[in-house]
């Protein structure tokens, strides 16, 4: 039986040899040639044979550099890099407030160092774009090692997600286009991923293209299953999309920073097959992303702009609280813009509190509170039309 279709059972460290399945060949295009890399595969002791994961050994060909992107020298000291990082983004030491009691910040790193963390490229495919959509695939790659696992769906897969990823469900079973996939439970998939990371290094920097999508979804799944402590191995996260936008300021136009577009522009002279199909399989994406990062020589920049695990969890909690606040203010959704709605939520107002203020102090007090200047800007808005819409809606809720 192909390793990609083995059943996923309880993991064990004792027997972790795995036969290697085929993966898509990706053109490794130097500046003016069309030679294809030869991908060599061997058995590799990474994860349990019983788990439904793919782990492969890949001998990476050298990649020439034709794009001059300024990066710090690789022998730059930890302290020098820390100071440069602080100058660029400010010191990222925030109070450990509101984090779940299971989170012990003393066991995590407070600075993501290129000397102490191994870079691991990862990608997710999901059942939809909303924050609570199922993660259906986790893939990761670091050097010679690649990880891939499919996860059983608990929710319906949206038509738009199927169009993008090729993943769909028939009679409760997960398919990639016409191929039936063997899937793991969410918990077993996380256990396998955690084991993969631990086999690589003591600390790992996880890099994704558009990490603002992948990072919170992965963390939510980890927290859902109470597995944050085993994942202290994650020193932080970095976003290749954000870094490349800074590194390539002259690159303009819609879609110019899509992974497929970047790969085709910098690593091939012709498009890679059906790129829309190939570039939305997480396993393919991590291989392409690693090659792109090495080609453009932005590894140090990814460390420089990384967010620690602690900061990532704090931001996640803030966003979760914002989502709760926005849900509570949902009756205003079609009355005012989302931007104004977010400002009301950030200011700490709820539908009930606005109603109580109106009842006790009237229209003038609502206008005063919402338009009052904070740090030189209106707390919410000073636009009279918007303020009147808010007041009329409050009255309708009485």
From TrEMBL:
Q: Which cofactor does it need?
A: Mg(2+)
Q: Which domain of life is it from?
A: Eukaryota
Output the Pfam families linked to this UniProt entry.
RNase_T (PF00929)
Q: What keywords are assigned to this protein?
A: Exonuclease, Hydrolase, Magnesium, Metal-binding, Nuclease
Q: This chain belongs to which protein, by name?
A: Exonuclease domain-containing protein
Which part of the chain is the Exonuclease domain?
A: 118-302
Sorted alphabetically, the Gene Ontology BP terms of this entry are: DNA catabolic process
Q: Which CDD domains match?
A: DEDDh (cd06127)
Fetch the SUPFAM superfamilies from UniProt: Ribonuclease H-like
Q: Which residues form a coiled coil?
A: none
Say yes or no: keyword Magnesium present.
yes
According to the UniProt record, one GO cellular component term is: cytoplasm
């Amino acid at each position: 039986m192909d390793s990609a279709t083995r059943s996923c059972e309880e993991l064990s460290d004792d027997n972790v040899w795995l036969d290697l399945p085929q993966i898509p060949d990706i053109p490794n295009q130097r500046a003016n040639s069309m030679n294809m890399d030869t991908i060599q595969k061997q058995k590799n002791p990474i994860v349990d044979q019983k788990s439904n994961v793919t782990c492969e050994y890949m001998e990476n060909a050298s990649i020439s550099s034709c794009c001059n992107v300024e990066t710090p020298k690789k022998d730059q000291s930890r302290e020098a890099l820390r100071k440069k990082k602080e100058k660029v983004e400010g010191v990222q030491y925030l109070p450990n407030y509101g984090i779940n009691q299971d989170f012990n910040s003393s066991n995590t790193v407070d600075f993501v160092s290129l000397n102490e963390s191994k870079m691991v490229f990862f990608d997710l495919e999901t059942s939809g774009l909303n924050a609570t959509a199922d993660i259906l695939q986790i893939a990761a790659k670091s050097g010679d090692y690649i990880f891939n696992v499919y996860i059983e769906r608990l929710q319906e897969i949206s038509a738009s997600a199927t169009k993008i990823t090729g993943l769909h469900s028939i009679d409760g079973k997960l398919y990639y286009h016409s191929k039936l996939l063997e899937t793991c439970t969410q918990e077993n998939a996380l256990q396998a991923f955690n084991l993969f990371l631990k086999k690589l290094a003591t600390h790992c920097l996880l890099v994704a293209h558009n990490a603002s999508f992948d990072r919170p979804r992965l963390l939510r799944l980890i927290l859902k299953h109470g597995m944050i402590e085993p994942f202290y191995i994650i020193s932080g996260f970095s976003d290749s999309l954000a870094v490349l936008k800074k590194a390539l300021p002259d690159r303009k136009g819609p879609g110019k920073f899509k992974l497929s577009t970047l790969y085709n522009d910098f690593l091939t002279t012709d498009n890679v097959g059906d790129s829309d199909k190939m570039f939305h399989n997480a396993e393919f994406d991590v291989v392409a992303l690693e090659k792109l990062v090495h080609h453009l020589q932005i590894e140090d920049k990814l460390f420089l702009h990384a967010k620690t695990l602690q900061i990532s969890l704090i931001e996640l909690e803030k966003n979760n609280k914002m989502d709760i606040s926005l849900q509570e203010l949902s009756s205003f959704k079609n009355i005012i813009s989302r931007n104004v709605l977010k400002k009301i939520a950030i200011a700490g107002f709820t539908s009930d509190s606005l109603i109580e203020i109106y009842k006790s102090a009237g229209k003038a007090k609502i206008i005063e509170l919402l338009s009052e200047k904070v740090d030189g800007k209106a707390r919410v808005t000073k636009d009279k039309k918007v303020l009147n819409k808010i007041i009329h809606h409050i009255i309708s809720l009485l």
